[in-house]
Amino acid sequence: MALASSEQQQTGKLVSAAASKRQWSSPLMVLLSFGALVVAWHVGATIWPSRSFPAPLLVLQTFISETASGDLPYNLGITLCRVAASFVLAMLIGSVIGVLLGSHRRADQFFNPWVILFLNIPALVIIVLAYIWFGLNEAAAIGAVALNKIPNVVVTMREGTRALDPRYAEMARVYRFNALDRLRHILIPQLQPYIAAASRSGISLIWKIVLVVELLGRSNGVGFQINLFFQLFDVAAILAYTLAFVAVMLFIELVVVQPLEHTSTRWRRSAA
Question: Which stretches make up the ABC transmembrane type-1 domain (predicted)?
Fold first, then answer.
């Protein structure tokens, strides 16, 4: 017995050490990968010196200059606000529609062609029509971005609703749960993985569309600035704004979205 206990403790230490090693090696590998990319970029810019292909140091200097002047933080903040507003709007509307379609078969059969239609309309067309119909204003910009994402959320949440375990609904009827209790204790816990999946794909799609919306019809934001620097042929500034925005979105993905997704599916792994 003592020998078995000792072996179990040793195995546990080895597993813990391996997990700790993976925890540290993953960020290190990411840093090494990005470092290799920067080195390759610098070598390419050195071999082929051109205004259209600035070196990393020049992009960094431009980033520092734009940050010090306040232009980059201001436009980045404006864009992030549009991303947040569009994301919340798309998730709320798309989730409600998806749950309703997943719960009512006849409604799903009737509205499914609509969902397929909006899934296949190009984002650019929706943006242009929104500006034509509602004017070059903030509501049209945010609405156009949200409308591009809503069909994807509908499809994800509809599939999640179809996969609900009917035994929990039966339990809710037996114990006479009210609508709020059904939502909190039956529906949302089972839909959490689908909500996380829709959120993750949504944030990656929305921030790209927001830049197009700003480029076409707004007077501020990262997309507007990129269009301005494009006209000035200032590639260093284009890369500085682009990399700053991408860095913020990667931070949100790694620090907010992925941990939430991991937490939402933890109970399924524990049950398994």
Answer: 76-256
